[in-house]
From TrEMBL:
Gene3D superfamilies: P-loop containing nucleotide triphosphate hydrolases
Stated name of the protein: AFG1-like ATPase
Family assignment from sequence similarity: Belongs to the AFG1 ATPase family.
Native source organism of the sequence: Triparma laevis f. longispina
Keyword set, alphabetical order: ATP-binding, Nucleotide-binding
Keyword check for Nucleotide-binding: yes
Length: 517
């Protein structure tokens, strides 16, 4: 055990077996019959072998099925056999978890194209899942959280090695093993898996981490302890570093008893397709296929993108030549309103990164900011990525973005396009209300081309003086931008607007504050 865990030895040294999902559910359903739990902690069946024969009648009365039926009858949703299959599987999952019916419960992996209703279905499941031990995240936010946890563990390790516990005990150890002030010999020994080097000649004491224990099993244990039911939206792997991490992380998560419900544009076997060193990711695919029921919505005939969207969404996405002017008027009206405090700029800080946001407003208990598209997505002075966009989305309740271009006709770079995708994902996941201005309608931003005209890079023939180039758009970016267009439509809908913005966010914060009291 490396020295980084010395201060937590009492906490994790005598770890009991992981609590299974079924037992965790039982904590929150006290009336449940737990007589099926065997003496070795295994779960005996509480139902007869033909209990699944009545699954359809049981599902008809489930909260998940009821919510689905309500949306069909009141919101214009169309009944879809593929969707119903997913609803049935998710209802059975809830039933298995709540009834202690199984020793180990598999999750659900839903895949399909943009508009197939994956996120819609997962959110219905999440909202009706009868436990507080659950969490719903966008996959990008999940990976940011993992990277943050890993950095914290590394910091703990470094602090433990460089000071604290070791700093206090090393002089004592040195004396006990017979060191002398005038000795120039170097002695070493192992302590908790860490090589301790004693150099008595100059009074220096050092520690070399010789074990380098993987922190991911510890992180997995912490995650499952907090929320054993994890819902991840848009599972997609494009980064080789993430591929290495996920291979070890999901093995540990499933061993700890995680139940995963996730959505993706791709079936598991196509994840990280053609990725660098893909072989290291293959165990993740195997673990997902073994731990989740895989459901395809590829053939769903219903396009869910338009079902929650208004005809124009013109007061959110302000299009046309007058779009910029309309956004400016909306911003001017905001900063002249009551309960408004104008703040010229603010600095967001997380880890070692500082982000300066120039135009910010305090409205009551909420915060609003304004960006130009080029500042947000193309700045070389302050290049932003996943973590920065997540930080911005977490700090502001409403965001104004001026001048969104057409991405096919040289309005932005390929990097600007990709950053715009990340920004919209972060805001959508955080339920931030975003006002956009553009000379183009949402449909005109992107025509699903395989190439875009990038005015800032080489042309096709590599002519350094030839000016702009036509840049190929990879499959992932095309998928992602299709999703972004879909989300821009949804973010203009009455439902999304009604669940976002300063007033809604302030009410949520007030409610959380009261619960803490």
């Amino acid at each position: 055990m490396p020295v980084m865990w010395v201060t937590s030895a009492v906490k994790i040294g005598l770890r009991a077996k992981p609590i299974t999902p079924s037992l965790l559910f039982a904590r929150f359903i006290p009336e449940i019959n737990t007589r099926g739990i065997g003496k070795h902690g295994h779960h005996a069946l509480l139902f007869s072998s033909d209990s699944n024969s009545n699954s359809n009648s049981q599902n008809a009365n489930s909260p998940l099925q009821t919510s689905y039926e309500d949306l069909i009858s009141t919101s214009g949703f169309k009944r879809d056999a593929y969707q119903q299959h997913a609803i049935d599987s998710l209802t059975n999952l809830q039933s298995n978890l709540a009834s202690l019916n199984v020793k180990r419960t598999n999750g659900v992996y839903m895949h399909g194209g943009v508009g197939s209703g994956k996120t819609f279905t997962m959110d219905l499941f999440y909202n009706t899942a009868p436990t507080v031990k659950k969490r719903r995240m966008h996959f990008t936010s999940f990976m940011l959280d993992i990277h943050k946890r890993m950095a914290e563990k590394q910091k703990e390790r470094e602090e433990a090695i460089s000071g604290g516990f070791l700093k206090r005990i090393l002089p004592k150890i040195h004396d006990d093993i017979g060191g002398t002030a005038d000795s120039s010999t170097e002695r070493s020994f192992s302590l908790f898996g860490t090589k301790i080097v004693l150099s008595s000649g100059d009074g220096e004491y050092g520690a070399v981490d010789s074990n380098n224990e993987d922190p991911l099993p510890i992180i997995a244990r912490e995650i499952v302890s907090d929320h054993f039911l994890l819902c991840l939206d848009e599972f997609e792997v494009t980064d080789v570093a993430d591929a290495f991490i996920l291979a070890r992380l999901f093995d540990a998560l499933f061993k700890e008893g995680l139940v995963l419900v996730t959505t993706s544009n791709r079936k598991p076997s196509d994840l990280y397709y053609d990725g660098l060193n893909r072989q290291v990711f293959m165990p993740t695919i195997k673990a997902i296929e073994e731990s989740c029921k895989v459901i395809s919505l590829e053939e769903s005939p219903v396009d869910y993108r338009g079902l929650k969207t208004r005809e124009s969404g013109g007061d959110i996405f302000m299009a046309g030549e007058e779009g910029v002017e309309k956004l400016g008027e909306a911003w001017a009206k905001l900063i002249k309103g009551e309960n408004m405090v104008m703040v010229e700029s603010c600095t967001l800080t997380e880890a070692s990164r500082n982000i300066v946001v120039e135009n910010t407003v305090q409205v009551g208990g909420g915060k609003v900011c304004k960006f130009d598209f080029k500042e947000l997505c193309e700045s070389s002075k302050m290049p932003l990525g996943n973590s920065e966009f997540a930080m911005i989305a977490g700090a502001f309740d409403e965001i104004f973005v001026d001048g969104v271009p057409n991405f096919n006709k040289g309005g932005s770079t390929i990097d600007g396009l990709r950053r715009f995708v990340l920004f919209v994902d972060a805001c959508y996941d955080a339920k931030v209300r975003v006002y956009f201005s553009s000379k183009h309608t949402i449909k005109e931003l992107w025509d699903n081309s395989e190439e875009i005209y990038d005015p800032r890079s080489l042309n096709k023939h590599g002519d350094l003086l030839g000016g702009a180039s036509v840049v190929p758009v990879d499959t992932f970016t095309r998928f992602s931008l299709d999703r972004t267009i879909s989300r821009l439509h949804e973010m203009s809908s009455d439902e999304y607007i009604g669940n976002s913005g300063v007033e809604v966010k302030e009410a949520e914060r007030s409610k959380k504050k009261k619960l803490k009291l």
